[in-house]
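Researcher: Before we compare anything, I want clean individual predictions. No alignment, no superposition, just each chain on its own. First chain goes here; please echo the sequence and then give the structure tokens.
Model: Echoing the first chain and its structure:
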Amino acid sequence: MKKNSHITGFYLETLLLIVVFLAIILVLTQVFGLGRMQSVQAKRLTDAVVLAGNAAEAVSASRTQQDLLDLLDENSNAALMPDASGVTACYGADLSPDADGGYRVEVSWLPEETETGRMIRSVIRVCFGEAGEALYQLETAVFQPEVGT
């Protein structure tokens, strides 16, 4: 009888150990899954900041909206917005110009005339995916003095 209680105790301890291991595995799986999702979100946000910064540099180097389009357009990935208020450009996952890419950069072009030149204000919005989920938005402005005649 003593032998049966030892065997039963062994089975119960083994079963309890298996349950504990399964619980640990489930918790770790959830932790690593959430970590992976946060990693993907962080990469997308970092990519969006890089694309917005590049677009801001293109705005500061442009005298006209057509100049901005010319700077952003590589491999036919950029076009004027339908209402002609700016430029939109698409980029792939590796941030290379790609007309079918997942990242879309929208750059508004809002000129304001002043006495000594003009101020170009831009809102740069970076979206991701077909739903157009906005990841990052940057507002910038550049002053263009009047060119002497």
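Researcher: Okay. Second chain, same rules.
Model: Second chain and its structure:
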Amino acid sequence: MKVVRLRFYEELNDFLPTARKKEPFLHQFTGNPSVKDLIESLGVPHAEVDMILVNGSSVDFSYKPTDEDQISVYPVFESLDISEVTHLRRRPLRRLKFICDVHLGKMARNLRLLGFDTFFDRNIDDNEIINMSISEKRIILTRDRQLLKNNRITHGYWIRSSDPREQIREAVARFDLRNNLKPFTRCMDCNGLIRTVSKEDIIELLPPRTRQYYEEFFKCNVCGKIYWEGSHYENMKKQIQKLPD
């Protein structure tokens, strides 16, 4: 039997029982597991971990803990520059692209509203999500903790809230998105880019009252959906202004 002292930092505590949150605690184990396996056995997905210090020195996921090790575990620093330490992955993705699991359809629409490339398909399975995340360098957003424990995942985040309004606020704060917003540049339905289109080109597709009261229009390059700055536009602008800095 071996005993180590562990301390998890910041949002990694969301995965721990109350008695272990934000406090050092002792953990007993047998065998010769890697520090990655040890961390995940406590409920913390490796995809949310960016740095591990053992007795004050940084280690990678393959390190095998020994008796009486002091282990500190830190989350992915997407919004901070900590260049003097050893990360467990390549530098954080700065051209942020996301893929949402089947539970986060409203969140995908909200991220697209803010201008972020966000893939969502309610018929996609976990393996397809992981494959697309790897091939297209997309950050997985999920409500499924177990998904993030898959060994192939390098960038992922467990969305804590079940409220769509809180979910988008959570993502903006977590990934430091406030200064990268490009609202109303992506189609909320299909993720395609939208462009300005002349009224004359689409006038036959417009409802009568829209033809009468609006002059500026936008069209999705992929699905062809048409947008204009109606009352919904003003409501969405107000919601964007409420996002955290």
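Researcher: What stands out in the second chain?
Model: The longest helix spans residues 126-136. Additionally, Residues 98-180 form one domain.
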